[in-house]
Amino acid sequence: MLLTFQQAKQQLLQSALTIKSLHSEKVTLFDALERITAEPVISPINVPSFDNSAMDGYAVRLADLKQSKLLPLAGAIFAGDDINNLHWPQGTCLRIMTGAPVPNDADAVVMQEQTEKSDLAITFLSNVKAGDNIRRIGEDVKKGAITVNKGTKLTIPTLSTLATLGISDLVVFKKLKVAILSTGDELTPIGQPLSGNGAIYDSNRFTLKLLLTKLNCEVIDLGIIADDLTEIKKALITASSQADLVITSGGVSVGDADYTKTALETLGQINFWKIAMKPGKPFAFGKIGNALFCGLPGNPVSTLVTFYQLVQPLILVLSGQQLTSIDLSFKVKIATSVKKRIGRLDFQRGILQINKQGELEVTTTGQQGSHITQSFNQANCFIVLEQDRGNVSEGEMVNVELFNTLLK
Questions:
Q1: What is the 8-class DSSP label of residue 118?
Q2: What residue ranges do the domains of the chain occupy?
Protein backbone atom coordinates (compact mmCIF):
# COMPACT_ATOMS: atom_id res chain seq x y z
CA MET A 1 0.00 0.00 0.00
CA LEU A 2 1.33 3.43 -0.97
CA LEU A 3 2.19 5.94 1.73
CA THR A 4 -0.10 8.98 1.68
CA PHE A 5 1.43 12.37 0.96
CA GLN A 6 0.82 13.59 4.52
CA GLN A 7 2.36 10.42 6.00
CA ALA A 8 5.45 10.86 3.82
CA LYS A 9 5.80 14.54 4.70
CA GLN A 10 5.46 13.79 8.41
CA GLN A 11 8.18 11.13 8.22
CA LEU A 12 10.54 13.55 6.48
CA LEU A 13 10.06 16.27 9.08
CA GLN A 14 10.37 13.85 12.01
CA SER A 15 13.62 12.50 10.57
CA ALA A 16 14.99 16.03 10.40
CA LEU A 17 14.83 16.19 14.19
CA THR A 18 17.26 13.26 14.51
CA ILE A 19 20.06 15.02 12.61
CA LYS A 20 23.05 16.33 14.58
CA SER A 21 22.63 19.73 16.16
CA LEU A 22 23.16 22.66 13.84
CA HIS A 23 26.31 24.74 14.04
CA SER A 24 26.20 28.51 14.11
CA GLU A 25 28.40 31.38 13.00
CA LYS A 26 28.50 35.15 13.36
CA VAL A 27 27.91 37.24 10.24
CA THR A 28 27.60 40.95 9.57
CA LEU A 29 24.17 42.49 9.29
CA PHE A 30 24.74 43.04 5.56
CA ASP A 31 25.55 39.34 5.02
CA ALA A 32 22.60 38.09 7.08
CA LEU A 33 19.87 38.37 4.44
CA GLU A 34 17.88 35.11 4.11
CA ARG A 35 19.90 33.48 6.92
CA ILE A 36 18.26 31.81 9.94
CA THR A 37 18.81 33.17 13.45
CA ALA A 38 20.54 30.70 15.80
CA GLU A 39 19.61 32.64 18.93
CA PRO A 40 17.06 35.31 19.87
CA VAL A 41 18.04 38.88 19.03
CA ILE A 42 17.70 41.17 22.06
CA SER A 43 17.29 44.92 21.62
CA PRO A 44 20.16 46.87 23.23
CA ILE A 45 18.23 50.15 23.19
CA ASN A 46 14.78 51.68 23.20
CA VAL A 47 13.35 52.75 19.85
CA PRO A 48 12.67 55.61 19.84
CA SER A 49 15.40 56.29 22.38
CA PHE A 50 13.69 59.54 23.42
CA ASP A 51 10.26 61.13 23.12
CA ASN A 52 10.13 62.90 19.75
CA SER A 53 7.74 64.72 17.49
CA ALA A 54 5.82 62.76 14.87
CA MET A 55 5.44 65.80 12.62
CA ASP A 56 6.20 69.47 12.07
CA GLY A 57 4.13 71.58 14.46
CA TYR A 58 4.10 73.13 17.92
CA ALA A 59 4.85 71.68 21.35
CA VAL A 60 2.30 72.75 23.94
CA ARG A 61 1.22 72.32 27.57
CA LEU A 62 -2.49 71.57 27.95
CA ALA A 63 -2.65 73.89 30.97
CA ASP A 64 -1.48 76.79 28.78
CA LEU A 65 -4.10 76.03 26.11
CA LYS A 66 -6.83 76.04 28.74
CA GLN A 67 -5.88 79.61 29.52
CA SER A 68 -5.71 80.75 25.91
CA LYS A 69 -5.86 79.38 22.36
CA LEU A 70 -3.36 82.08 21.36
CA LEU A 71 0.18 81.38 22.61
CA PRO A 72 3.36 83.35 21.97
CA LEU A 73 6.17 81.48 20.21
CA ALA A 74 9.14 81.03 22.58
CA GLY A 75 11.61 79.24 20.28
CA ALA A 76 12.20 76.24 18.03
CA ILE A 77 13.50 72.68 18.37
CA PHE A 78 15.08 70.80 15.45
CA ALA A 79 16.05 67.15 15.02
CA GLY A 80 19.34 66.54 16.81
CA ASP A 81 18.99 69.47 19.21
CA ASP A 82 20.07 69.09 22.82
CA ILE A 83 17.19 70.35 24.99
CA ASN A 84 18.67 69.65 28.43
CA ASN A 85 19.11 73.37 29.09
CA LEU A 86 16.02 74.48 27.19
CA HIS A 87 14.23 77.54 28.63
CA TRP A 88 10.48 77.33 27.91
CA PRO A 89 8.37 79.94 29.74
CA GLN A 90 4.87 79.12 30.93
CA GLY A 91 2.07 80.34 28.66
CA THR A 92 4.09 79.91 25.43
CA CYS A 93 4.57 77.26 22.73
CA LEU A 94 7.59 75.95 20.85
CA ARG A 95 8.04 75.37 17.12
CA ILE A 96 9.12 71.73 16.71
CA MET A 97 10.18 69.65 13.71
CA THR A 98 9.62 65.99 12.89
CA GLY A 99 12.01 63.78 14.85
CA ALA A 100 13.04 66.57 17.23
CA PRO A 101 13.15 65.76 20.98
CA VAL A 102 10.01 66.71 22.89
CA PRO A 103 10.47 68.53 26.24
CA ASN A 104 9.45 66.51 29.30
CA ASP A 105 6.72 68.96 30.26
CA ALA A 106 5.17 69.07 26.77
CA ASP A 107 1.77 67.34 26.71
CA ALA A 108 1.27 67.24 22.95
CA VAL A 109 2.45 68.36 19.54
CA VAL A 110 -0.10 70.15 17.38
CA MET A 111 0.41 69.81 13.64
CA GLN A 112 1.00 73.12 11.91
CA GLU A 113 -2.03 72.59 9.63
CA GLN A 114 -4.26 72.96 12.71
CA THR A 115 -2.84 76.36 13.62
CA GLU A 116 -2.58 79.94 12.37
CA LYS A 117 0.52 82.10 12.79
CA SER A 118 0.55 85.90 13.25
CA ASP A 119 3.18 88.23 14.72
CA LEU A 120 5.17 85.52 16.56
CA ALA A 121 2.01 84.12 18.16
CA ILE A 122 0.19 80.90 17.29
CA THR A 123 -3.56 80.36 17.33
CA PHE A 124 -4.62 76.73 17.91
CA LEU A 125 -7.74 75.85 15.94
CA SER A 126 -8.60 72.34 17.13
CA ASN A 127 -9.01 70.42 20.35
CA VAL A 128 -5.75 68.94 21.63
CA LYS A 129 -5.42 65.71 23.60
CA ALA A 130 -2.53 64.58 25.77
CA GLY A 131 0.03 62.61 23.78
CA ASP A 132 -1.04 63.88 20.37
CA ASN A 133 1.73 63.42 17.78
CA ILE A 134 4.40 62.38 20.26
CA ARG A 135 6.41 59.23 19.61
CA ARG A 136 7.12 57.83 23.06
CA ILE A 137 10.40 56.25 24.14
CA GLY A 138 10.38 52.49 23.46
CA GLU A 139 7.09 52.74 21.56
CA ASP A 140 8.51 50.70 18.64
CA VAL A 141 11.05 48.47 20.43
CA LYS A 142 11.79 48.27 24.14
CA LYS A 143 15.31 47.75 25.47
CA GLY A 144 15.83 44.12 26.51
CA ALA A 145 12.91 42.84 24.43
CA ILE A 146 13.24 39.92 22.03
CA THR A 147 13.15 41.57 18.64
CA VAL A 148 13.69 38.45 16.52
CA ASN A 149 13.06 34.90 17.68
CA LYS A 150 15.45 32.00 17.17
CA GLY A 151 14.77 30.15 13.92
CA THR A 152 13.59 33.24 12.04
CA LYS A 153 14.46 33.83 8.40
CA LEU A 154 15.99 37.28 8.17
CA THR A 155 14.23 39.46 5.61
CA ILE A 156 14.96 43.02 4.49
CA PRO A 157 12.29 44.56 6.79
CA THR A 158 13.64 42.57 9.77
CA LEU A 159 17.23 43.58 9.07
CA SER A 160 16.16 47.19 8.62
CA THR A 161 14.64 47.10 12.10
CA LEU A 162 17.85 45.63 13.52
CA ALA A 163 19.83 48.39 11.83
CA THR A 164 17.79 50.95 13.76
CA LEU A 165 18.95 49.20 16.93
CA GLY A 166 22.59 49.63 15.97
CA ILE A 167 23.15 45.85 15.74
CA SER A 168 26.10 45.19 13.44
CA ASP A 169 26.30 41.38 13.45
CA LEU A 170 24.14 38.35 14.16
CA VAL A 171 24.54 34.70 15.13
CA VAL A 172 22.97 32.51 12.44
CA PHE A 173 22.92 28.83 11.59
CA LYS A 174 25.55 27.69 9.12
CA LYS A 175 24.26 26.94 5.67
CA LEU A 176 22.97 23.44 5.06
CA LYS A 177 25.30 21.37 2.87
CA VAL A 178 23.39 19.57 0.13
CA ALA A 179 25.00 17.20 -2.39
CA ILE A 180 23.22 16.67 -5.71
CA LEU A 181 23.80 14.21 -8.53
CA SER A 182 21.91 12.91 -11.54
CA THR A 183 21.91 9.31 -12.73
CA GLY A 184 21.33 8.03 -16.23
CA ASP A 185 23.30 7.06 -19.35
CA GLU A 186 20.90 9.15 -21.40
CA LEU A 187 21.88 12.43 -19.69
CA THR A 188 24.00 15.06 -21.44
CA PRO A 189 25.45 18.15 -19.68
CA ILE A 190 23.83 21.44 -20.69
CA GLY A 191 25.93 23.13 -23.37
CA GLN A 192 27.13 19.94 -25.03
CA PRO A 193 25.56 18.43 -28.18
CA LEU A 194 23.14 15.58 -27.70
CA SER A 195 24.62 12.25 -28.77
CA GLY A 196 22.17 9.64 -30.05
CA ASN A 197 18.41 9.56 -30.38
CA GLY A 198 17.86 8.66 -26.72
CA ALA A 199 19.97 11.48 -25.26
CA ILE A 200 18.41 14.26 -23.20
CA TYR A 201 19.82 17.25 -21.35
CA ASP A 202 20.42 17.04 -17.60
CA SER A 203 17.96 19.81 -16.74
CA ASN A 204 16.99 18.41 -13.33
CA ARG A 205 20.39 18.95 -11.72
CA PHE A 206 20.42 22.51 -13.08
CA THR A 207 16.95 23.11 -11.61
CA LEU A 208 17.88 21.59 -8.24
CA LYS A 209 20.95 23.81 -8.03
CA LEU A 210 18.81 26.91 -8.59
CA LEU A 211 16.24 25.81 -6.00
CA LEU A 212 18.88 25.02 -3.39
CA THR A 213 20.69 28.29 -4.01
CA LYS A 214 17.43 30.17 -3.48
CA LEU A 215 16.97 28.26 -0.21
CA ASN A 216 20.43 29.49 0.83
CA CYS A 217 22.06 26.05 0.85
CA GLU A 218 25.71 25.25 0.15
CA VAL A 219 25.50 23.06 -2.96
CA ILE A 220 27.94 20.21 -3.65
CA ASP A 221 27.47 19.29 -7.31
CA LEU A 222 28.68 15.76 -8.10
CA GLY A 223 27.53 15.82 -11.71
CA ILE A 224 26.12 12.99 -13.80
CA ILE A 225 26.65 9.37 -12.71
CA ALA A 226 26.26 6.55 -15.24
CA ASP A 227 23.76 3.73 -14.76
CA ASP A 228 26.29 1.56 -12.99
CA LEU A 229 25.64 0.23 -9.48
CA THR A 230 29.31 0.46 -8.42
CA GLU A 231 29.65 4.07 -9.64
CA ILE A 232 26.41 5.10 -8.00
CA LYS A 233 27.54 3.57 -4.70
CA LYS A 234 30.84 5.47 -4.87
CA ALA A 235 29.02 8.72 -5.60
CA LEU A 236 26.58 8.25 -2.71
CA ILE A 237 29.42 7.45 -0.28
CA THR A 238 31.23 10.63 -1.38
CA ALA A 239 28.04 12.69 -1.13
CA SER A 240 27.07 11.42 2.32
CA SER A 241 30.55 12.10 3.69
CA GLN A 242 30.41 15.76 2.62
CA ALA A 243 26.79 16.78 3.01
CA ASP A 244 23.91 16.95 5.48
CA LEU A 245 21.44 16.01 2.76
CA VAL A 246 21.90 14.06 -0.47
CA ILE A 247 19.50 14.57 -3.37
CA THR A 248 19.51 12.47 -6.53
CA SER A 249 17.41 12.73 -9.66
CA GLY A 250 16.36 9.55 -11.44
CA GLY A 251 16.99 5.90 -10.67
CA VAL A 252 14.31 5.39 -8.01
CA SER A 253 11.65 3.82 -10.18
CA VAL A 254 11.25 0.12 -11.02
CA GLY A 255 13.16 -0.03 -14.32
CA ASP A 256 15.98 -2.47 -14.95
CA ALA A 257 18.57 0.33 -14.86
CA ASP A 258 17.21 2.17 -11.81
CA TYR A 259 20.10 1.45 -9.45
CA THR A 260 19.82 4.31 -6.96
CA LYS A 261 17.29 2.54 -4.77
CA THR A 262 19.42 -0.64 -4.80
CA ALA A 263 22.54 1.31 -3.85
CA LEU A 264 20.68 3.02 -1.00
CA GLU A 265 19.49 -0.33 0.35
CA THR A 266 23.11 -1.55 0.41
CA LEU A 267 24.71 1.58 1.91
CA GLY A 268 22.04 2.86 4.26
CA GLN A 269 18.34 2.58 4.88
CA ILE A 270 15.14 3.31 2.99
CA ASN A 271 12.23 4.71 4.96
CA PHE A 272 9.90 4.69 1.96
CA TRP A 273 10.10 4.97 -1.82
CA LYS A 274 6.55 5.21 -3.14
CA ILE A 275 3.96 7.88 -2.35
CA ALA A 276 0.31 8.21 -3.34
CA MET A 277 0.86 11.54 -5.09
CA LYS A 278 0.87 12.71 -8.69
CA PRO A 279 3.26 13.63 -10.10
CA GLY A 280 6.01 12.06 -8.00
CA LYS A 281 5.00 8.54 -7.00
CA PRO A 282 8.61 7.15 -7.10
CA PHE A 283 10.16 9.25 -4.32
CA ALA A 284 12.78 7.55 -2.14
CA PHE A 285 13.64 8.76 1.34
CA GLY A 286 16.21 7.32 3.69
CA LYS A 287 19.62 7.79 5.24
CA ILE A 288 23.25 7.17 4.31
CA GLY A 289 25.62 7.50 7.27
CA ASN A 290 24.77 10.81 8.96
CA ALA A 291 23.17 12.29 5.87
CA LEU A 292 19.51 12.15 4.95
CA PHE A 293 18.70 11.05 1.41
CA CYS A 294 15.97 12.12 -1.03
CA GLY A 295 15.73 10.32 -4.33
CA LEU A 296 13.60 12.36 -6.71
CA PRO A 297 11.92 10.95 -9.84
CA GLY A 298 13.56 11.65 -13.19
CA ASN A 299 10.75 13.42 -15.01
CA PRO A 300 11.32 17.21 -14.81
CA VAL A 301 7.84 18.13 -13.54
CA SER A 302 7.91 15.31 -10.97
CA THR A 303 11.31 16.50 -9.77
CA LEU A 304 10.08 20.06 -9.30
CA VAL A 305 6.80 19.11 -7.62
CA THR A 306 8.36 16.66 -5.16
CA PHE A 307 11.14 19.10 -4.31
CA TYR A 308 8.64 21.89 -3.70
CA GLN A 309 6.16 19.84 -1.69
CA LEU A 310 8.49 17.52 0.26
CA VAL A 311 12.15 18.54 0.08
CA GLN A 312 11.55 22.26 0.61
CA PRO A 313 9.95 21.91 4.09
CA LEU A 314 12.60 19.31 5.01
CA ILE A 315 15.38 21.76 4.12
CA LEU A 316 13.74 24.56 6.10
CA VAL A 317 13.70 22.40 9.24
CA LEU A 318 17.24 21.13 8.66
CA SER A 319 18.37 24.75 8.24
CA GLY A 320 17.01 25.66 11.66
CA GLN A 321 13.96 27.60 10.54
CA GLN A 322 10.81 27.47 12.61
CA LEU A 323 8.43 25.83 10.17
CA THR A 324 5.07 27.50 9.78
CA SER A 325 2.76 27.11 6.83
CA ILE A 326 4.75 28.02 3.72
CA ASP A 327 1.74 27.92 1.43
CA LEU A 328 -1.37 30.07 1.10
CA SER A 329 -4.25 27.67 0.45
CA PHE A 330 -7.95 28.30 -0.09
CA LYS A 331 -10.94 27.08 -2.09
CA VAL A 332 -12.13 28.61 -5.38
CA LYS A 333 -14.27 27.56 -8.33
CA ILE A 334 -12.53 25.82 -11.19
CA ALA A 335 -13.36 27.14 -14.66
CA THR A 336 -12.39 23.96 -16.52
CA SER A 337 -13.20 20.31 -16.06
CA VAL A 338 -10.36 18.04 -14.93
CA LYS A 339 -9.84 14.32 -15.38
CA LYS A 340 -8.51 12.49 -12.33
CA ARG A 341 -8.31 8.93 -11.07
CA ILE A 342 -9.07 8.11 -7.46
CA GLY A 343 -6.05 6.91 -5.45
CA ARG A 344 -3.44 9.67 -5.44
CA LEU A 345 -3.22 13.26 -4.23
CA ASP A 346 -2.88 15.28 -7.42
CA PHE A 347 -0.90 18.51 -7.76
CA GLN A 348 -2.05 20.07 -11.02
CA ARG A 349 -0.50 23.28 -12.25
CA GLY A 350 -3.06 26.08 -12.35
CA ILE A 351 -3.64 29.75 -13.12
CA LEU A 352 -5.49 31.70 -10.43
CA GLN A 353 -7.05 34.87 -11.81
CA ILE A 354 -10.04 37.21 -11.59
CA ASN A 355 -12.77 36.54 -14.15
CA LYS A 356 -15.02 39.08 -15.89
CA GLN A 357 -17.45 38.96 -12.97
CA GLY A 358 -14.69 40.05 -10.59
CA GLU A 359 -14.48 36.65 -8.93
CA LEU A 360 -11.43 34.50 -8.31
CA GLU A 361 -11.32 31.35 -10.39
CA VAL A 362 -8.71 28.81 -11.36
CA THR A 363 -7.98 27.00 -14.60
CA THR A 364 -5.41 24.34 -15.39
CA THR A 365 -2.43 25.15 -17.58
CA GLY A 366 -3.45 22.40 -19.97
CA GLN A 367 -1.58 19.13 -20.31
CA GLN A 368 -0.33 17.89 -16.95
CA GLY A 369 2.08 15.12 -17.95
CA SER A 370 5.30 14.71 -15.95
CA HIS A 371 7.29 15.70 -19.05
CA ILE A 372 5.31 18.89 -19.82
CA THR A 373 7.67 21.50 -18.36
CA GLN A 374 5.66 24.29 -20.00
CA SER A 375 2.94 23.58 -17.42
CA PHE A 376 4.93 25.62 -14.90
CA ASN A 377 5.68 28.59 -17.13
CA GLN A 378 2.25 30.20 -16.87
CA ALA A 379 1.19 28.67 -13.56
CA ASN A 380 0.98 30.59 -10.29
CA CYS A 381 -0.53 27.87 -8.13
CA PHE A 382 -1.21 24.19 -7.58
CA ILE A 383 -4.71 22.82 -7.90
CA VAL A 384 -4.64 20.22 -5.12
CA LEU A 385 -7.11 17.41 -5.74
CA GLU A 386 -7.76 15.02 -2.86
CA GLN A 387 -6.60 11.40 -3.00
CA ASP A 388 -10.14 10.02 -2.93
CA ARG A 389 -11.50 12.50 -5.48
CA GLY A 390 -12.29 11.58 -9.05
CA ASN A 391 -13.04 13.72 -12.09
CA VAL A 392 -13.80 17.39 -11.42
CA SER A 393 -16.49 19.29 -13.30
CA GLU A 394 -16.41 22.95 -14.27
CA GLY A 395 -17.75 25.13 -11.45
CA GLU A 396 -16.82 22.79 -8.60
CA MET A 397 -14.83 24.08 -5.63
CA VAL A 398 -11.20 22.98 -5.48
CA ASN A 399 -8.25 23.62 -3.17
CA VAL A 400 -5.72 26.07 -4.57
CA GLU A 401 -2.22 26.50 -3.19
CA LEU A 402 -0.43 29.66 -4.32
CA PHE A 403 3.24 29.27 -5.18
CA ASN A 404 5.53 30.62 -2.49
CA THR A 405 8.67 32.62 -3.22
CA LEU A 406 10.63 29.52 -4.25
CA LEU A 407 8.83 29.44 -7.60
CA LYS A 408 8.50 33.20 -8.09
A1: E
A2: 5-23+174-318, 25-47+140-173, 52-135, 328-407
